[in-house]
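Retro notes (design track)

What went well: tokenization of the new backbones is finally stable.
What didn't: we kept losing track of which sequence belonged to which structure.
Fix going forward: every design gets posted as structure first, then sequence, in one message. First example under the new rule, 151 residues:
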């Protein structure tokens, strides 16, 4: 789980511009070990995000243990949020948690204007999805590319 690959990829990069995402589905057997590896990088500006929040059974424990800078709400909680009061309440609760814990909430998978309008009404500060733009490839410096056998 903690392979040291980040140490090989990050030298010379501006850590203030990087976010490491850990999916909510990732099993982390030793949070203390992960913190020992990431904390020095986070002190130098690297941010940590929990992806797919709300999609798995361990979501809240995962978020509490990781103490992320960014919490990315899974598309399953965003799709049709404009018509589902329970989803609205849960995202509103996540927004309160993020605010109180020093994280920022980002809603993934915004595909309709109604969803965007509801997320704005709730006060979700960041959104992403096909409504706003298609994903594009970014040119990475050579040292930032993963080796072919790392995936």
């Amino acid at each position: 789980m903690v392979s040291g690959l980040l140490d090989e990829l990050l030298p010379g990069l501006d850590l203030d511009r990087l976010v490491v995402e850990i999916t909510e589905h990732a099993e982390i057997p030793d949070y203390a070990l992960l913190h020992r590896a990431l904390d020095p990088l986070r002190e130098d500006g690297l941010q940590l995000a929990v992806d797919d929040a709300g999609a798995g059974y361990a979501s809240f424990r995962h978020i509490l243990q990781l103490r992320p800078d960014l919490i990315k709400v899974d598309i399953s909680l965003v799709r049709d949020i404009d018509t589902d009061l329970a989803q609205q309440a849960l995202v509103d609760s996540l927004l309160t948690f993020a605010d109180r814990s020093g994280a920022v909430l980002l809603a993934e998978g915004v595909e309709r204007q109604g969803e965007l309008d509801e997320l704005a009404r709730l006060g979700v500060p960041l959104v992403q999805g096909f409504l706003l733009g298609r994903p594009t490839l970014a040119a990475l410096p050579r040292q930032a590319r993963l080796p072919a056998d790392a995936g």
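Added context from the reviewer: The chain has a mean pLDDT of 87.
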